[in-house]
Every structure is written in structure tokens, then in C-alpha cells.
Write a structure and sequence with these properties.
single chain; alpha/beta; Isoleucyl-tRNA Synthetase, Domain 1; 3 domains; four-stranded antiparallel beta sheet
Length: 509
């Protein structure tokens, strides 16, 4: 879609350097994202990873690559510690809730997909479900077992001394990555990890399979190697995940890929990691049992795309501090952009029929034209400032390792250029929003007005009170008008004189 000759440059965690993106297969971009372990709801820190991966995919599509994006669902094999210790998270959740592991997985997968939709994250080419690939995992393990693995009473373990430069992704020798791996009796090296975990004698698991090493379940690290290779091949282009995966999970994947392919450079060419979402008590985590879900933000009156914008306001490699004050600021910013587009359409009736570009990007040979945006045959001036300068600034930001904070500013700049033709402004904003995914062309200010769950007043009551206030102001009874306003504020409603909608929910933060 982009006609810019500028290369797309991305930070590779493997080299700790920014490099030009050069696809393995010409014209294609193959991306694998570590998805959720579906034993619980995903917290907003988890969801930051998928906003990042979606933005990467949108930029690749915008740049003209045919995107194949795969995200996995882990429904078996992930232990309560990322370092080969503890119980299987799915088995533990099933026991605690008195449900089957399959019921747990199905319920939380659907909840995750609902959040994906709320955040306007595009559907990947494929969701890979771990339990659908167990036979392939066993075959993969059999293929590397003789040269790279050894068997213990607890399972089959990968011998990390059999591959070159294990842990180079984590920089384990300098960043203490290996120290997180808990000891297991009989391991040859502390960093060795489970390929297959045997079911202990006398126990029966809900999810277990026969294997050459006895009944059991695959190791979590094995799953991603198998699913990424099965769907994208060896090599593929980009592997994404949270920065916590950089220390253990992804180095283990790389080691398995090396063993399977027989070469050092196997699996993904580029490894990309988003940083943590930090709350004031520390990084966002489910371990305490008290964490923020996207639904909790909605219950407070925030539109979910305010959280998407909050994520875009920070570079994906930077820590993002979360606070309700910060989310409120992002919400206000989103409202201003939505109102700017609404005002643009209100002043120019020919744009009112424009629709939001679909979640699938145009094909690489297409560019956004006024005909596509308006649905008519009008044309606009070629070489306008907003098309040339605005688009260039936007692309320069995104093509230099996804600088979304600057890209968001480009949208606001495009909205501010009053002297540019409305067609050019609208077309340019549509183009930008196809990458940022904020739905600016279809959202309305009314859509953003979400009633908090704890509100003690109904919308009908608000409208009645506002009508009474309008009458009081017309009669110059300002004492009555102020009293109505103050009562509404006390009930969580902000009255904004001059706003065509007349009111909005106020969020106490």
C-alpha cells in the first residue's frame, strides 16, 4: 500500500540492533506471536502484547507485504513457573474451579477473543491451538531426542550444551536470565528444559497422551517451535512476544529449532518483544489474583479503544506506566480525534457516507483514493501538503521501528490543517487510521459515552435533568441551572456546555 521507498526498520532482540526488514519469501511477511495460556482472563498487560503485534502486522500490510500472522492458544503444557517448575496451569485451574481443563480453555479463549475484538485487533491468518498439534510435537521431539535430549524420571529434557550459543537472545551471562530456571534433580545443566513431562506414577491428568517416554504432556517451549514451524516454515520472518519471554521461553525455542534444522539460524529471523505494562505496585501480573481486565476499564466508563491509544502513545520497547489518570488522558485525546473527524464530516456532507476501512488492509497494489473513501468519483489535488508531508512524517515514524507516538501525533496534525481540502484530510486520516486501528472514521462521540457500571443514574434521568437545566438557563434562573449541574456531577455526570451532545460521564480517578 505504501509507495515510500524507505525501508522498514525493526529492532531485533537477538542482535539488540535495528535492522532493515528483508523477508525470507519475497513479498511476504510471516509472523508468529506467542498467544495466551487460557487458564484465566487476560489482564491489560497481556493485551498490550497483542496491540503491539497487531500494529506490527498493520504496518507490514501497509508497507505492501502479504501478511501471514499466526497466534497460538496454549491450552496445555504451560507450568505455573515459566522455568519448568510447578503444576500445569490448566490442570491447576480446572481443579480449583471444579471444571474440566477443556471447559476452562474454551471459556477463557472466548473471553480473550472478545477482548481482541474490543481492541480492534485484526484476526490472524490462523489461531493455532496447542492440543491440535500434539502428534506433531511428539514427532518433533523424536527427531531431536537421540542427539539433543536425555530422559529423567520426570520427563525428556533438552541438553542445551548440544547447540551453539544457547541463551544468546537472553544475554543470559550478563542479564541473569538463566538464574530463573529452577533446579530439577538429574539435570545436566541448570538451563536444560523439559521437552516432554511425564505424568507422575499414580496420577492421572486430564490432558495426557501416550509417547515414547510414557504418558504425559508436551513442554510449553516445544509447542511454539512446532506450531510456528508447521504454519510458517523454517525460516520465517518475525516472532513476537512479551519481554519476559526473551529470558527463557524464546531461547528454548531457538535451541529446539537449531536442533531440528541442524543450523544456527533457524526459526525466526527477527525476534521482537514489547516491554511491560507497569502499575504503581509493579509490573502487571496475575500471580496475586488481583489484576486489571479490559472489562474493568469498560465498567469504569472507558471505551476499550482508549486503552489501545494509551498503548500506542508509548513505544512498544518502553515500559508503559498504567494509571487511571493516564487512561483518562488517552480517552480525552481519543474523543478529540473522533470529534475532529465528526466535525470534518459535518462541514462537508459529501464525506458523511464514508465508511471505516475494513480490518483487512487493501492489497499491496491498492492505494487509498477518494473514490474508495467517499464512494464516488471525485478527485483531489495531487501533491497537497497533507498528502505529501503528512504521509511522509507518518511513514517515517512507523518505518523506524514502529514509532507509534509520533504516528499518533501525525493524525492530530492532519486534523488541524484547516486550509487543506476536506477530501485530502479525510483520505489521509483514513490511511493513517488503517494502521493505528482507532476506528476514527466510524466511531462517534456518542459511541464513546459509556455508562460506568457503578453509575447511580440512568441515561433517561440525565436527559430529563438536562432538559430542565436548559429551561432554567433560558429563564435566566442560573441558581436552578447550577443546582441541576452540581447534582449531576455528584452522580458522575459531567455537563459540558457548548458540547453538541450536552453531557458525558465523568470518571473519578
Amino acid at each position: 500500500m505504501s509507495q515510500s521507498p524507505s525501508p522498514l526498520r525493526l529492532f531485533n532482540s537477538l542482535t539488540r540492533e535495528i535492522q532493515d526488514f528483508e523477508p525470507v519469501h519475497e513479498g511476504e511477511a510471516r509472523v508468529y506471536t506467542c498467544g495466551p495460556t487460557v487458564y484465566n482472563y487476560q489482564h491489560i498487560g497481556n493485551m498490550r502484547a497483542y496491540v503491539f503485534a497487531d500494529t506490527l502486522g498493520r504496518v507490514l500490510s501497509y508497507k505492501g507485504f502479504k501478511l501471514k500472522h499466526v497466534i497460538n492458544i496454549t491450552d496445555v503444557g504451560h507450568l505455573t513457573s515459566d522455568a519448568d517448575a510447578g503444576d500445569d496451569k490448566m490442570e491447576k485451574a480446572a481443579g480449583a474451579l471444579g471444571k474440566s481443563a477443556r471447559e476452562i480453555a474454551d471459556f477463557y479463549t472466548q473471553a480473550y477473543w472478545e477482548d481482541i475484538d474490543r481492541l480492534n485487533i485484526r484476526q490472524p491468518a490462523k489461531w493455532t491451538i496447542a492440543t491440535d498439534y500434539v502428534d506433531q510435537m511428539i514427532a518433533f521431539a523424536e527427531g531431536i531426542a537421540d542427539k539433543h535430549c536425555y530422559e529423567l524420571e520426570s520427563g525428556l529434557y533438552f541438553d542445551t550444551s548440544t547447540v551453539a550459543d544457547y541463551g544468546r537472545l537472553a544475554r543470559a551471562s550478563t542479564e541473569d536470565g538463566q538464574s530463573r530456571i529452577d533446579p530439577v534433580p538429574g539435570k545436566r545443566q541448570p538451563q536444560d528444559f523439559a521437552i516432554w513431562r511425564k505424568t507422575p506414577l499414580g496420577e492421572t491428568r486430564q490432558m495426557e497422551w501416550d509417547s515414547p517416554w510414557g504418558k504425559g504432556a508436551p513442554g510449553w517451549h516445544l509447542e511454539c517451535s512446532v506450531m510456528s514451524g508447521a504454519e510458517l516454515g523454517f525460516q520465517f520472518d518475525i516472532h513476537t512476544g512479551g519481554i519476559d519471554h526473551r529470558e527463557i521461553h524464546h531461547p528454548c525455542e531457538i535451541a529446539q529449532n537449531q536442533a531440528h534444522c541442524g543450523v544456527t539460524d533457524s526459526g525466526a529471523q527477527i525476534w521482537m518483544h514489547n516491554n511491560f505494562l507497569i502499575d504503581r505496585a509493579g509490573k502487571m501480573s496475575k500471580s496475586s489474583g488481583d489484576f486489571l481486565r479490559l472489562q474493568a476499564l469498560i465498567d469504569k466508563g472507558f471505551h476499550p479503544l482508549a486503552y489501545r491509544l494509551m498503548c500506542l502513545q508509548a513505544h512498544y520497547r518502553s515500559e508503559l506506566e498504567f494509571s487511571l489518570e493516564g487512561l483518562q488522558a488517552a480517552f480525552v485525546r481519543l474523543k478529540r480525534m473522533v470529534m475532529g473527524v465528526e466535525a470534518l464530516k459535518a462541514r462537508h456532507a459529501e464525506l458523511v457516507s464514508a465508511s471505516m476501512p475494513p480490518k483487512e488492509m487493501p492489497s499491496p497494489t491498492e492505494t487509498w483514493t477518494l473514490k474508495q473513501v467517499q464512494g464516488d468519483g471525485h478527485s483531489s489535488a495531487v501533491g497537497s501538503t497533507i498528502r505529501v508531508v503528512g504521509t511522509m512524517q507518518f511513514e517515517e515514524a512507523l518505518f523506524e521501528d514502529l514509532n507509534t507516538p509520533e504516528a499518533v501525533t501525525s493524525v492530530e496534525w492532519a486534523l488541524s490543517l484547516k486550509n487543506e481540502s476536506p477530501e485530502a484530510r479525510f483520505e489521509t486520516i483514513a490511511k493513517m487510521d488503517s494502521v493505528l486501528g482507532l476506528n476514527l472514521l466510524s466511531l462517534t462521540r456518542a459511541d464513546l459515552r459509556i455508562r460506568p457500571k457503578a453509575a447511580v443514574i440512568t441515561e433517561a434521568e440525565i436527559e430529563t435533568a438536562l432538559a430542565a437545566r436548559k429551561e432554567a438557563r433560558a429563564a435566566k434562573n442560573f441558581a436552578c441551572s447550577d443546582a441541576i449541574r452540581d447534582d449531576l456531577i455528584a452522580k458522575g455526570v459531567e455537563v459540558m456546555d457548548g458540547d453538541p451532545l450536552g453531557w458525558d460521564w465523568r470518571i473519578d480517578v
